[in-house]
Amino acid sequence: MRDLVRARAAAVESLxxxxxxxxxxxxxxGHVYPRKTGWTMRYLRWLQEQTFDHPAHQxxxxxRVEAVRLAKERVERLEQTIAEFLPHWSLAPLVRALQxxxxxxxxxxxxxxxxVGDVSRFENPRQLMAYLGLVPxxxxxxxxxxxxxxxxxxxxxxxxxxxxxxxxxxxxxxxxTVKLYRLEATTPNVREIAWxxxxxxxxxxxxxxxxxxxxxxxxxxxxxxxxxxxxxxAREVQPA
Length: 240
Hints:
The chain is mainly alpha-helical. It is 65% helix and 5% strand. The protein has a two-stranded antiparallel ribbon. A hairpin with a 2-residue loop joins strand 1 and strand 2. Helix 6 crosses helix 10 and helix 9 packs antiparallel against helix 10.
């Protein structure tokens, strides 16, 4: 399962590179997409409508768009494979329980479980946060203590996914239809942790935003606490 997760991560990176190459090629030839959101069906239709003075440029564009399509299919194929193997995995109950948390889908949950491993090896949530590189860096000189940005030590795959998941907590606490089914399939203790995480992290997001913090700083702070809630769910499902 870890190999599948890492193969998917490599496929996602390849997709990002191919998309960037297409965008750079269009800018190089003065073709600017008039809207903000790219890589939608509207954006793909816009790409097909573009014309160039030389036929070679048209061929290069089509080849690069095709590379994007193949990379996207590879990502989707690997995600489907992960879903197919999950029911036969010994840690499947933990993956399902983690998905009760807002912002945690199948890929994030599986990545967390495969990369972090046994959560009980961490004596407290702060150790887990430090392992993921989500704690502030610190420089001390005598009695002077200076704190900087996060350390970015440890596992970068999980850290990046948690920061992306933290973006969902900008909304007020609410249980959607999909999460409702996830919650019904878990234990009462896991449901309590999931709801506590929603109320706590949504309030944290709003409080930091009101203080004028940048969205990147806010998401990182929320991701740090989200890791702690994920550790609590893991201890509940698989006690030491």
